[in-house]
Design goal:
Layout: E1 7-14, H1 18-31, H2 39-56, E2 61-67, E3 76-82, H3 102-109, E4 112-118, E5 121-128
Antiparallel strand pairs: 1-2, 2-3, 3-5, 4-5
Helix pairs in contact: 1-2, 2-3
């Protein structure tokens, strides 16, 4: 399992739709010096989790933490924290649904993911393989 490295970037965002793009940009920029990290996957997964924080959080803010690559294999961990107490639940999205695919995307694109309850809500942590 990936050991969390030092934090490359951390962002605090208001739970409002425009913050999703800000969080995505921060994460993509954090990993831009590491060409083996797929910036498209980072952008997609951070967008999904930030959108969930905006839509389902009980808090005013959410946070994104981007950890440095593992020295062992180049993998990275990203955390999204929000004030919501309900853990995400998988559901089957219909073909025309605009949402409901976030956990499915994590399952397909992330090497590992998990949720954690925190003192202020919850976090969702995912690991991406380092393809170097």
């Amino acid at each position: 399992m990936h050991e969390r490295g030092h934090v490359l970037a951390v962002g605090r965002y208001r739970c409002e739709p425009r913050a999703v793009a800000q969080a995505r940009r921060t994460a993509v920029e954090a990993y831009s010096p590491f060409p083996w990290i797929d910036s498209g996957v980072v952008a997609l997964l951070v967008s999904e989790l930030a959108t969930n924080a905006v839509l389902h959080s009980n808090g005013a803010d959410f946070y994104v933490l981007c950890h440095s690559p593992s020295l062992a294999d180049g993998s990275v961990q990203v955390e999204v924290h929000d004030g919501g107490s309900a853990l995400p639940a998988a559901r089957m999205a219909d073909a025309l649904d605009e949402g409901g695919r976030g956990l499915e995307l994590l399952g397909v694109l992330a090497a590992h993911w998990r949720t954690e309850r925190t003192t202020t809500g919850k976090s969702l942590v995912f690991t991406l393989k380092g393809d170097r």
